[in-house]
Design brief:
heterodimer; A: mainly alpha; B: TIM Barrel; 8-stranded mixed β-sheet
Amino acid sequence: METYYKPEHLPRFGEIAEGNKELADAFFAYYGKVFQDGALSEREKALIALAVAHTVQCPYCIDAYTSACLEKGSDLEQMTEAVHVATAIRGGASLVHGVQMLDQVKKLVM
Amino acid sequence: MSLDTQEFIALELLSTGDGALIEVEGPRATTSMHHRRAPLTSPDEQFLILNAATVRSGPTTSGIFDRDLEASGWPVLQPAGLDIFQINLGKLCNMTCRHCHVDSGPDRIDENMDLGTIEACLRAIDVSGAHTVDLTGGAPELNPHFEYLVDECVQRGKHVMDRCNLTILTTRRYQHLPQWFAERNVEVICSLPHYRKLGTDAQRGKGTYDKSLRALRLLNEAGYGQGDPTRPLTLVTNPVGAYLAGNQASLEAEWKEALAKNHDVYFDRLLALNNMPMSRYLEWLMEKGMVEEYLEKLVQAFNPGTIAGLMCRNTLSVSWDGYLYDCDFNQQLDMKMDLPGAARPRVQDFSLGIWQQHVIRTERHCYGCTAGAGSGCGGAIT
């Protein structure tokens, strides 16, 4: 079946260098550095990536960072909490706009 | 994974192989393949399944370990120097973990090293020059001659490592061991796949985590895990699933913080090991239909930088019945050491000179030790 998302695209990510190697090299070097142990551990960074992956709803990232989270020592409970953080921020982002609605309502109704 | 639906062995009394019965309780994630008479207990069956998997990566893309070694500048794999003398005291264990490469369990009562073979090991240790004696199993403590062997090794000035499943230390008969180990400066190397409950119990059986923490506290009370080099407490983690071990140093920092913060429990170092695609772990991969995917993951992560430090180059492995192997994995796959000049691979006949000249035997499972940062009984290699 033809789909827009193809699992085999993930391991082929590097092929993006075909159109512009310099930019790809710079991106992958940066990407690699971002996920190294720093003030945050590799495990914490992978959890953040997992949450962001759910926010941007990228299936490649969700697969990749599910594996990465497990490899770096997170378990299902921790990963589920990370996804809930993304969900809470998404939901909260909608809900907090409700105050704008509220103000507008107050302006318009008696 | 529904642990509740697993069939548990209700064995509380274990035979020690010496005609005595001992009472031992232990968590069980599964039953041994031996107990179920599963065809996969045969090494030939395991090789058949592993070799049927298609391999597309690695230096030669052949999936033949020796060829990938050769392509990496290692035409023959031979020992460096003998540092570690590893003895597998038997397959008997109070636990039955999901991933066990030994297929250990409470039903493995027939395979236990006898005193004659232990004496032969001690003679071999004397001529081996190895600085460390590494005791494993099964639960090595269940061997009736365990304490005698440890004492003999300590008297010889050897560094002794006990590969401990932790839960055994919470059983009545073995509660004295933390203090007993401390008096002899034995390094305790403990299996704990995760610093949280979920993964630990899934892999090692319900209740393992709580018992393991209890055992770790006993070890802490005996002076272990406090940074004292004479009482080192080492934890071993291996993935609770079909992925590679993480960055050992990074995991160690996280584990130390989490265990201290959540449980006031301390340890000295963490070893991160890959799971070997064999025995009960292979069985689990087959159930999941992931044999090929996992093997491909290992081969894809083939790291030539690990070859020099592979444990088969500085360790030898003795089985409960006195045979010699290049590692505990080869031992469980019945790949006896291939010694030159038709020398018998028996501990009774051990010669350091012959060992140094021999060629190490490999099969596809060996990709588990060369993947990523490398893996082995000593943890990451690079």
